Please model this.
Amino acid sequence: MTRAVYALPGNEALADDLARRGGWPRAALDVHRFPDGESLVTVAAPPAGGEAVLACTLDRPDPKLVPLLMAAATLRELGAARVGLVAPYLGYMRQDARFHPGEAVSSRIFGRLLDQAFDWLLTVDPHLHRHRTLAEAGLPRGRLIHAAPALAAWVRANVARPLVVGPDGESEQWAREVAALVDAPVAIAGKERRGDRDVRVTLPAGSDWDGRTPVLLDDIVSSGHTMAETVRVLRARGLPPPVCVAVHGVFAEGARELLRAAGAARIVTTDSIPQENALIGLGAALAEALAAIGTEAGAPAG
Model:
């Protein structure tokens, strides 16, 4: 099955990288914003009977969603047999239960909406907590790749004698996997959340921490408050300034400044969301997974 790669605005580097690595053509996509806020999407015709791949990471997803759905529908109308989405960051996975009466379970709503529009979706380490799989989040045809090997490679190359620290229980899976890959001790902090920006962090006692540099590792840095509080606790223990590493750098306003003020030595994320700290590349892993999706359709994608 032939394939072409399209970029939603802001995702050009991702689409270019995927197309180059896979040997697939890049095709044009334009989004025009009218003064009233509505969008006009224009796409180059896809390969007849082939596959169109849209590249669009889904941080701050609300303004991206309507153009994305319009592009997918238009590509089908113009002859694409399949339309897929590469979204390294998948938003709206946080709200995976109804915590208070009347709340929307956003993860399933968002997942089902994307599943209706796309034949498959490829993402990186979505924030699955109560959902064990993407299928439970409404995405039975969703595929995911893990960033731990890329994170471990960066830590191995840049941090001598690391101590890998997960700032809360939700980060434990990433912290333990990376620690195993770099042969380092691991510590998982306890967290009591009192509000969106108010947390209390406690650390276990450690006997093998001397002479090690803490590497705080989490899947998402958004407000930065959990990681910043963990930095303060580590510094109070007399450890060197920590290196903060995350899969996805969402970075709400002021988050970087908060981490630096707390005493972080460095802040590094993958390039799942383009921003200044995105120094760990995921292009090779995404392209490899994308090539595998192509072969599942029948003939290799070309």
About this structure: Residues 3-145+282-292 form a domain with the Rossmann fold fold (CATH 3.40.50.2020). The longest strand covers residues 213-221. The longest helix spans residues 62-77. The mean pLDDT is 91.
